[in-house]
Design brief:
Length: 702
């Protein structure tokens, strides 16, 4: 019997859907007004996504031959209206790129109608099963046994190029706030945490979608970990700074769903936790260890110790198997998914890790042994399915999604082949703080960028686009742009040489090994700063243009601050800096600011006296010198917990500290590749990468 397919004319790109038959354009499911001519142009661009559509081709599609019209003005107006509808810009396009003197090109990923992904019918097709059944069973088993040793890993490493399976999406939230951490559901409601400028809050939404409501609690920076089997109590973790959570874990609490005061689970600190079978015990992890403890925190006993760091605990539906993520914390480290029986036996890896990528955060599907998890690679996150199997052979995972939206934190919904996920399209808006008006205004037309640094003469800028990680150079007005790096290179934190001829930056071509490169400011080939396989970061030039200060890394730990003599290529250690990182030289070369590795305190090295002193005892980040070298700007994380609370500046002469930007008062967070980024414009105005991402909760079906 031949398979039948539903003929559809739906194009998907980002948060948009265009129904070609009806001309209906939707954003997050909401219908937008789109006139006929902008619709025709959009359809033409989608039909030829990634290719240049000439202005003449668009003219032929819009106006019949012989029509008298001011074509140039008319088409320009149509493109402008279309960009306004999509929230796009000509200067920093996310969808429609101008091809000078030729036409336009649609640059965002597009899922076209009936694009060929494997359907559910394909997966269960009798013909597919029949092909295997023609092989004698014993022979098939022997062949599979011989091939299984290498097949799973080879499939895993190459399956990213295979088409994704068809998914249906239903958006459940629409509040525009950043979501963080696990989704927890009892089937009727979804519990999660949101990140606001004031900190993290606990929220909920109906499993059918609707208004997001806050769950009141006195627990600071809460995030849900699990819901009890009877659906009456939440396990929540009380967060601190990201560094503290990684080092010590978070305090564990029990919060009644119907309302009431949260109760601490003794003095337990955990990175994740799950209820036991009858909610009388709790399984939790911290560092390399798994523990079992009574709900009041008593009778703690070690359940399992492993070589890596344990995260993201998940019970099987019958609570007989526990799966978890085991991660390394080195720069560019890997992660893998493991499982162990409820009695602590049978530890084994079920999803291997690969360099330059991270697997994490799975969930068993309702009424199934299939396991859903996320895989992050090359800056994006997709959903994968690991089929359940009682065989001794390791099953190969199957890719479910292929963008353009990142999908993470899968949680079982209670329905077959359905899950709740967080969907996001990461994007930033570059803004400048204007102290006279106490407001943020777009900088460089609000491009999605971070790591902005001005040349010493204040005439040029270097920056990386977010989240792409490509390095660009432009003048201070944003024109004369030159793209300096191209994929697979990902760049981060560019630094100008004093003479303005070179730019140093942190880069990787593999995703798991970051080191420092130097590239000509006019464009050219990037060369590695230090030959060999060492990881180096945070290069900063000395004013004489003869040496570079940088921080080597190994296993995720700083190995102190070093100085490279560019004439002799000799490397020497900076005195007293064995546990320092993130160096920044002052414009006159008198001082080097750096962060202590243990607690990220702001430190200052005097090149004349060769001594260090502490400038600020609080957790700090992204130090930047003012143009005249009289002030040091940096982020203060002391009261910000998971995010910085303010950007401050410290006057070097008398160490007077003052707030420049109160980040808690902003309507949106600052984001970045690794953490909230901040820097300085040529006039010393504070720059931020304001979160302009689309991030909501979805129900997905396949």
């Amino acid at each position: 019997m031949p398979l039948s397919y539903e003929v559809r004319s739906l194009y998907r790109f980002g948060v948009f859907e265009l129904e070609a038959c009806t001309g209906e354009l939707r954003r997050n499911g909401v219908k937008l007004k789109l006139q006929d001519q902008p619709y025709q142009v959009l359809l033409k661009l989608l039909e030829h996504a990634g290719q240049t559509v000439t202005r003449e081709q668009l003219r032929s599609a819009l106006w019949p031959a012989g029509t008298f019209v001011d074509f140039e003005t008319g088409l320009n107006t149509i493109i402008k209206r279309l960009r306004e509808t999509l929230g796009d810009s000509a200067e920093n396009p996310a969808f429609i790129e101008t091809v000078p003197k030729r036409g336009y090109r649609f640059i965002a990923p597009v899922t076209p109608p009936n694009s060929g992904p494997e359907s559910v019918a394909d997966k269960m097709a009798p013909g597919r099963r029949g092909r295997l059944s023609t092989i004698p069973r014993l022979g098939a088993f022997l062949i599979l046994a011989l091939l299984s040793v290498g097949f799973a890993l080879r499939h895993w490493s190459t399956a990213a190029s295979l088409p994704a399976r068809v998914l249906d999406f239903a958006q459940l939230t629409s509040d525009g706030q950043a979501k963080q951490g696990r989704l927890v559901s009892d089937g009727s409601r979804i519990y999660f945490s949101e990140i606001l400028p004031v900190g993290r809050i606990l929220a909920q939404v109906s499993a059918r979608g609707g208004e997001t409501t806050t769950i009141p609690t006195t627990v600071s920076n809460p995030r849900p970990a699990d819901i009890s089997p009877d659906g009456t109590e939440l396990l929540i973790l009380s967060g601190g700074s990201a560094k503290d959570e990684e080092a010590y874990g978070s305090a564990l609490w029990i919060l009644p769903v119907a309302g009431g005061s949260a109760r601490p689970v003794g003095n337990v600190f955990a990175t994740d936790a799950l209820w036991g079978e009858r909610a009388e015990t709790i399984v939790y992890c911290n560092g390399h260890d798994l523990y079992v403890v009574n709900r009041d925190g008593s009778n703690r006993r070690n359940f399992l110790t492993v070589s890596g760091y344990v995260e993201s605990l998940r019970w099987s539906p019958n609570r007989q198997v526990l799966r978890f993520t085991m991660a390394t914390r080195a720069m560019g480290g890997t992660s893998s998914i493991w499982e162990v029986s409820a009695n602590g036996a049978g530890l084994r890896e079920v999803v291997p890790g690969l360099p330059g990528s991270a697997v994490c955060c799975g969930a068993w599907l309702a009424g199934s042994e299939d396991f859903l998890f996320q895989w992050t690679r090359e800056g994006r996150t997709d959903l994968w399915e690991l089929p359940g199997s009682r065989s001794l052979l390791r099953p190969a995972p199957t890719r479910l999604t292929a963008g353009p939206m990142n999908l993470s934190e899968p949680a079982a919904s209670g329905a077959p082949n359905e899950a709740f996920v967080v969907g996001s399209i990461p994007r930033a808006e570059l803004v400048k703080y204007v102290p006279q008006e106490a407001e943020l205004v777009p900088y460089l037309s609000g491009i999605s960028a971070e790591g902005v640094e001005a040349s010493r003469d204040g005439q040029w800028l270097a920056y990386t686009l977010f989240p792409e990680g490509t390095l660009w150079r432009s003048n201070i007005a944003g024109s004369e742009r030159i793209q300096l790096t191209f994929p697979p290179m990902r760049a981060f934190l560019p630094r100008w040489s004093p003479d303005g001829k070179q730019i140093a930056f942190i880069g990787t071509t593999t995703g798991d090994h970051w080191t420092t490169y130097v590239i000509p400011a006019q464009g050219g080939v990037a060369r590695q700063l230090i030959r060999g396989n060492d990881e180096t970061a945070d290069a900063t030039w000395m004013p004489d243009n003869k040496s570079i200060v940088f921080g080597p890394w190994k296993g995720g730990e700083s190995r102190g601050i070093r100085v490279l003599d560019l004439n002799t290529n000799q490397v020497s250690a900076l005195p007293g800096a064995t546990e320092m990182w993130s160096p920044r030289t002052s414009p006159d070369g008198r001082y080097i600011a750096a962060l202590s590795q243990q607690d990220s305190k702001m430190m200052l090295f005097d090149m004349r006296t060769q001594t260090w002193k502490e400038l600020c005892a609080d957790y700090s980040g992204y130090p930047s010198w003012s143009r005249d070298g009289k002030f040091l700007y940096f982020q203060d994380w002391n009261h910000g917990n998971a995010y910085p609370s303010r950007v401050v500046r410290l006057r070097i002469r008398d160490e007077r500290l003052e707030t420049v930007v109160d980040l808690k008062s902003l309507d949106r967070l600052s984001i970045g590749t690794y953490m909230s980024w901040s820097g300085l414009a040529p006039d010393d105005a504070v720059l931020l990468s304001r979160n302009n991402s689309t991030q909501e909760i979805y129900a997905v079906k396949w």
